[in-house]
Amino acid sequence: MLNPDLVGRTFPGATSTAVSQESISAFAAVIGESEISVATPTYAITITLDQSQKLLQESGLDWTRVVHGEQRFEIKRPIVAGDTLRCDSTIESARVMAGNEIVTVRGDLFNGTELVVSTWSTLVVRA
Amino acid sequence: MSRFILGQELPSHTFHINRALLVAYANASGDQNPIHQDEAFAKSVGLPDVIAHGMLTMALAGKYVADQAGGSTSVKEFSVRFTKPVVVPANTDVELIISGKVSEITEAGDAKIDITAVCAETKVLGMAKAIVANA
After folding, report:
1. Is B28 at the interface with chain A, CB within 8 A?
2. Nearest to A50 among B30, B58, B66 (CB)
3. Measuring CA to CA, which residue among B53, B57, B63, B55 is closest to residue B117?
4. Disulfide engineering: B111 pairs with which of A49, B4, B33, B107, CB 3.0-4.6 Å?
5. How confident is chain A (127 residues) per 10-residue block, as mean pLDDT?
6. Per-domain boundaries in chain A
7. Domains in chain B, please, with CATH?
8. How far does the CA of residue A9 sit from the closest CA of chain B (Å)?
9. In Å, how far is A52's CA from the nearest CA of chain B?
10. How far apart are CA B60 and CA B63, in angstroms?
Protein backbone atom coordinates (compact mmCIF):
# COMPACT_ATOMS: atom_id res chain seq x y z
CA MET A 1 0.00 0.00 0.00
CA LEU A 2 1.34 3.40 -0.98
CA ASN A 3 2.01 5.83 1.82
CA PRO A 4 -0.92 8.31 1.38
CA ASP A 5 1.20 11.18 2.70
CA LEU A 6 3.14 11.09 -0.58
CA VAL A 7 0.19 12.07 -2.80
CA GLY A 8 0.81 15.48 -4.32
CA ARG A 9 4.51 15.38 -3.68
CA THR A 10 7.10 15.87 -6.41
CA PHE A 11 10.35 13.96 -6.35
CA PRO A 12 13.05 15.64 -8.45
CA GLY A 13 15.01 13.20 -10.56
CA ALA A 14 18.41 12.55 -9.03
CA THR A 15 20.03 11.48 -12.28
CA SER A 16 19.74 12.46 -15.94
CA THR A 17 19.53 10.22 -18.97
CA ALA A 18 21.58 11.10 -22.04
CA VAL A 19 19.47 10.20 -25.07
CA SER A 20 21.51 8.45 -27.75
CA GLN A 21 20.68 8.10 -31.43
CA GLU A 22 21.18 4.35 -30.97
CA SER A 23 18.40 4.23 -28.36
CA ILE A 24 15.97 6.29 -30.49
CA SER A 25 16.75 4.14 -33.54
CA ALA A 26 16.31 0.86 -31.66
CA PHE A 27 12.90 1.91 -30.34
CA ALA A 28 11.82 3.11 -33.80
CA ALA A 29 12.98 -0.11 -35.46
CA VAL A 30 10.65 -2.23 -33.29
CA ILE A 31 7.56 -0.39 -34.54
CA GLY A 32 8.74 -0.04 -38.14
CA GLU A 33 9.46 3.69 -38.02
CA SER A 34 12.19 4.69 -40.47
CA GLU A 35 12.23 8.43 -39.60
CA ILE A 36 14.74 8.55 -36.75
CA SER A 37 15.68 12.24 -36.58
CA VAL A 38 13.23 12.52 -33.66
CA ALA A 39 11.97 9.99 -31.11
CA THR A 40 8.60 8.34 -31.71
CA PRO A 41 5.64 9.59 -29.59
CA THR A 42 5.84 7.00 -26.80
CA TYR A 43 9.66 6.86 -26.48
CA ALA A 44 9.55 8.91 -23.26
CA ILE A 45 8.16 5.88 -21.43
CA THR A 46 11.59 4.25 -21.56
CA ILE A 47 12.75 6.93 -19.12
CA THR A 48 9.69 7.82 -17.06
CA LEU A 49 8.29 4.40 -16.20
CA ASP A 50 11.66 3.25 -14.86
CA GLN A 51 11.86 6.37 -12.67
CA SER A 52 8.26 5.90 -11.50
CA GLN A 53 8.88 2.27 -10.67
CA LYS A 54 11.80 3.11 -8.41
CA LEU A 55 9.85 5.86 -6.65
CA LEU A 56 6.69 3.81 -6.15
CA GLN A 57 8.56 0.74 -4.96
CA GLU A 58 10.39 2.87 -2.40
CA SER A 59 6.99 4.32 -1.42
CA GLY A 60 5.47 0.96 -0.56
CA LEU A 61 3.79 -0.16 -3.78
CA ASP A 62 3.86 -3.90 -4.57
CA TRP A 63 5.29 -3.77 -8.10
CA THR A 64 4.85 -7.52 -8.68
CA ARG A 65 1.08 -6.99 -8.82
CA VAL A 66 1.08 -3.86 -10.97
CA VAL A 67 -0.92 -3.65 -14.21
CA HIS A 68 -0.69 -0.63 -16.52
CA GLY A 69 -4.16 0.92 -16.61
CA GLU A 70 -3.82 4.16 -18.55
CA GLN A 71 -1.10 6.18 -20.22
CA ARG A 72 -0.97 9.73 -21.50
CA PHE A 73 1.71 11.89 -23.12
CA GLU A 74 1.91 15.64 -23.64
CA ILE A 75 4.73 16.32 -26.06
CA LYS A 76 6.02 19.93 -26.14
CA ARG A 77 8.58 18.88 -28.72
CA PRO A 78 9.90 15.47 -29.77
CA ILE A 79 12.84 14.06 -27.85
CA VAL A 80 16.03 14.10 -29.94
CA ALA A 81 19.47 12.54 -29.62
CA GLY A 82 21.65 14.73 -27.44
CA ASP A 83 18.90 15.60 -24.97
CA THR A 84 19.91 15.04 -21.37
CA LEU A 85 16.64 14.36 -19.61
CA ARG A 86 15.87 14.59 -15.91
CA CYS A 87 12.57 13.08 -14.79
CA ASP A 88 10.70 14.80 -11.96
CA SER A 89 8.01 12.43 -10.66
CA THR A 90 4.79 13.53 -8.96
CA ILE A 91 2.34 11.15 -7.32
CA GLU A 92 -0.89 12.82 -8.47
CA SER A 93 -3.45 10.48 -6.96
CA ALA A 94 -3.87 7.21 -5.10
CA ARG A 95 -7.19 5.58 -4.41
CA VAL A 96 -8.68 2.15 -3.79
CA MET A 97 -11.48 0.79 -6.01
CA ALA A 98 -12.98 -2.66 -5.50
CA GLY A 99 -9.93 -3.63 -3.49
CA ASN A 100 -7.52 -2.55 -6.21
CA GLU A 101 -5.10 0.27 -5.50
CA ILE A 102 -4.98 2.81 -8.35
CA VAL A 103 -2.06 5.23 -8.51
CA THR A 104 -1.40 7.96 -11.06
CA VAL A 105 2.15 9.24 -11.36
CA ARG A 106 3.25 12.11 -13.59
CA GLY A 107 6.74 12.25 -15.05
CA ASP A 108 8.04 15.59 -16.31
CA LEU A 109 11.10 15.28 -18.54
CA PHE A 110 13.33 18.35 -18.51
CA ASN A 111 16.29 19.10 -20.77
CA GLY A 112 17.99 21.68 -18.57
CA THR A 113 15.10 24.00 -17.65
CA GLU A 114 13.04 23.12 -20.75
CA LEU A 115 10.01 20.88 -20.21
CA VAL A 116 10.08 18.47 -23.18
CA VAL A 117 7.49 15.77 -22.44
CA SER A 118 5.04 15.08 -19.60
CA THR A 119 3.72 11.58 -19.06
CA TRP A 120 0.93 10.28 -16.84
CA SER A 121 0.93 6.59 -15.94
CA THR A 122 -2.03 5.11 -14.10
CA LEU A 123 -1.06 1.86 -12.43
CA VAL A 124 -3.41 -0.67 -10.90
CA VAL A 125 -2.19 -2.88 -8.08
CA ARG A 126 -4.36 -6.00 -8.26
CA ALA A 127 -5.84 -7.08 -4.95
CA MET B 1 -4.10 23.43 -46.63
CA SER B 2 -5.35 21.34 -43.74
CA ARG B 3 -4.72 17.62 -43.67
CA PHE B 4 -7.81 16.68 -41.65
CA ILE B 5 -11.49 17.60 -41.67
CA LEU B 6 -14.05 16.93 -38.94
CA GLY B 7 -15.57 13.47 -39.19
CA GLN B 8 -12.91 12.14 -41.55
CA GLU B 9 -12.41 8.38 -41.37
CA LEU B 10 -8.75 7.43 -41.60
CA PRO B 11 -7.65 4.24 -43.38
CA SER B 12 -6.93 1.29 -41.13
CA HIS B 13 -3.54 -0.34 -40.81
CA THR B 14 -2.75 -3.87 -39.66
CA PHE B 15 0.33 -4.51 -37.52
CA HIS B 16 1.65 -7.99 -36.79
CA ILE B 17 2.74 -8.89 -33.26
CA ASN B 18 4.68 -12.05 -32.48
CA ARG B 19 6.97 -13.34 -29.71
CA ALA B 20 10.08 -12.03 -31.48
CA LEU B 21 8.59 -8.53 -31.54
CA LEU B 22 7.88 -8.74 -27.80
CA VAL B 23 11.54 -9.59 -27.16
CA ALA B 24 12.63 -6.73 -29.42
CA TYR B 25 10.33 -4.29 -27.60
CA ALA B 26 11.54 -5.52 -24.20
CA ASN B 27 15.13 -4.87 -25.24
CA ALA B 28 14.44 -1.46 -26.79
CA SER B 29 12.25 -0.23 -23.92
CA GLY B 30 13.91 -1.88 -20.93
CA ASP B 31 10.63 -3.51 -19.83
CA GLN B 32 11.74 -7.10 -19.21
CA ASN B 33 8.65 -8.23 -17.27
CA PRO B 34 8.50 -12.03 -17.89
CA ILE B 35 4.72 -11.99 -18.55
CA HIS B 36 5.69 -10.64 -22.00
CA GLN B 37 8.21 -13.37 -22.82
CA ASP B 38 7.86 -16.46 -20.62
CA GLU B 39 4.77 -18.57 -21.27
CA ALA B 40 5.12 -20.68 -18.12
CA PHE B 41 5.51 -17.58 -15.96
CA ALA B 42 2.55 -15.82 -17.61
CA LYS B 43 0.31 -18.83 -16.96
CA SER B 44 1.56 -19.09 -13.37
CA VAL B 45 0.16 -15.62 -12.65
CA GLY B 46 -3.23 -16.42 -14.16
CA LEU B 47 -2.82 -15.12 -17.72
CA PRO B 48 -4.04 -17.23 -20.67
CA ASP B 49 -0.61 -17.00 -22.36
CA VAL B 50 2.16 -14.47 -22.98
CA ILE B 51 0.66 -11.00 -23.46
CA ALA B 52 2.06 -8.02 -25.34
CA HIS B 53 3.34 -4.99 -23.44
CA GLY B 54 0.50 -2.47 -23.29
CA MET B 55 3.11 0.11 -24.21
CA LEU B 56 3.98 -1.86 -27.38
CA THR B 57 0.35 -1.68 -28.47
CA MET B 58 0.39 2.04 -27.66
CA ALA B 59 3.68 2.51 -29.53
CA LEU B 60 2.17 0.89 -32.64
CA ALA B 61 -0.95 3.06 -32.33
CA GLY B 62 1.43 6.02 -32.04
CA LYS B 63 3.19 4.95 -35.23
CA TYR B 64 -0.22 4.83 -36.94
CA VAL B 65 -1.12 8.32 -35.74
CA ALA B 66 2.29 9.71 -36.73
CA ASP B 67 1.92 8.22 -40.22
CA GLN B 68 -1.52 9.77 -40.63
CA ALA B 69 -0.36 13.16 -39.34
CA GLY B 70 2.82 13.46 -41.39
CA GLY B 71 5.36 12.25 -38.82
CA SER B 72 6.14 11.98 -35.12
CA THR B 73 6.80 15.72 -34.90
CA SER B 74 3.07 16.38 -35.45
CA VAL B 75 1.92 14.41 -32.39
CA LYS B 76 1.22 16.74 -29.43
CA GLU B 77 -0.88 14.61 -27.07
CA PHE B 78 -1.62 10.90 -26.97
CA SER B 79 -3.56 8.90 -24.39
CA VAL B 80 -5.03 5.42 -24.03
CA ARG B 81 -6.62 3.05 -21.54
CA PHE B 82 -5.44 -0.54 -21.59
CA THR B 83 -8.75 -2.40 -21.51
CA LYS B 84 -7.93 -5.91 -22.79
CA PRO B 85 -4.63 -7.78 -23.11
CA VAL B 86 -3.19 -8.69 -26.51
CA VAL B 87 -2.52 -12.42 -26.15
CA VAL B 88 0.44 -13.67 -28.21
CA PRO B 89 0.65 -17.47 -28.55
CA ALA B 90 3.91 -19.11 -29.69
CA ASN B 91 4.62 -19.31 -33.43
CA THR B 92 1.76 -16.96 -34.24
CA ASP B 93 1.49 -13.55 -35.88
CA VAL B 94 -1.31 -11.75 -34.06
CA GLU B 95 -3.05 -9.03 -36.06
CA LEU B 96 -3.54 -5.63 -34.46
CA ILE B 97 -5.85 -3.48 -36.57
CA ILE B 98 -5.68 0.27 -35.92
CA SER B 99 -8.07 2.82 -37.37
CA GLY B 100 -8.96 6.41 -36.59
CA LYS B 101 -11.52 9.14 -37.02
CA VAL B 102 -11.18 12.91 -36.71
CA SER B 103 -13.55 13.77 -33.85
CA GLU B 104 -12.72 17.44 -33.35
CA ILE B 105 -10.82 20.38 -34.77
CA THR B 106 -9.67 22.23 -31.66
CA GLU B 107 -9.75 25.98 -31.12
CA ALA B 108 -5.99 25.97 -31.65
CA GLY B 109 -6.59 24.39 -35.06
CA ASP B 110 -5.22 20.96 -34.17
CA ALA B 111 -7.02 17.72 -35.02
CA LYS B 112 -8.24 15.30 -32.39
CA ILE B 113 -8.16 11.71 -33.61
CA ASP B 114 -10.13 8.95 -31.91
CA ILE B 115 -8.23 5.69 -32.29
CA THR B 116 -9.62 2.15 -32.41
CA ALA B 117 -7.34 -0.83 -31.80
CA VAL B 118 -8.77 -4.30 -32.42
CA CYS B 119 -7.17 -7.69 -31.84
CA ALA B 120 -9.05 -10.99 -32.28
CA GLU B 121 -12.26 -8.99 -32.82
CA THR B 122 -11.88 -7.34 -29.41
CA LYS B 123 -11.09 -3.69 -28.70
CA VAL B 124 -7.86 -3.67 -26.72
CA LEU B 125 -7.60 0.10 -26.09
CA GLY B 126 -10.24 2.39 -24.64
CA MET B 127 -10.52 6.18 -24.80
CA ALA B 128 -7.57 6.20 -27.20
CA LYS B 129 -7.04 9.62 -28.71
CA ALA B 130 -4.36 11.91 -30.03
CA ILE B 131 -4.06 15.62 -30.70
CA VAL B 132 -2.02 16.27 -33.83
CA ALA B 133 -1.01 19.33 -35.82
CA ASN B 134 -3.44 19.84 -38.70
CA ALA B 135 -1.08 21.09 -41.36
Report:
1. yes
2. B30
3. B57
4. B4
5. 85 92 98 97 93 84 85 98 96 91 95 97 88
6. 4-125
7. 9-17+52-132 (3.10.129.10)
8. 23
9. 13
10. 5
Backbone φ and ψ of A44, nearest 5°:
-55, -25
In this model, does residue B99 exceed pLDDT 90? yes
For B53, name the nearest residue in chain A, comparing CA atoms only. Answer: A68
Summarize pLDDT for B38-76 with one digit per residue, the tens.
Answer: 999 999 988 999 999 999 999 999 999 999 999 999 999
Three-class DSSP labels, chain A: CCCHHHCCCEECCCCEEECCHHHHHHHHHHCCCCCCCCCCCCCCHHHHHHHHHHHHHHCCCCHHHEEEEEEEEEECCCCCCCCEEEEEEEEEEEEEECCEEEEEEEEEEEECCEEEEEEEEEEEECC
Relative to beta strand A10-11, strand A84-97 is: antiparallel
CB pairs under 8 A between A and B: 90
d(CA B67, CA A47): 24
Nearest CA in chain A to B60: A31
Spatial separation of the C-alpha atoms in residues B118 and B16, rounded to whole Å: 12
Q: Which residues pair with B64 in a beta bridge?
A: none
- CA dihedral for A38, A43, A46, A52, sign (positive or negative): positive
Is the ipTM here above 0.85? Answer: yes
According to the CATH classification, is domain A4-125 in 3.10.129.10?
A: yes
Candidates B22, B29, B113: best to mutate against A (most CBs of A within 10 A) is B29
Contact A111, A84 (CB under 8 A): yes
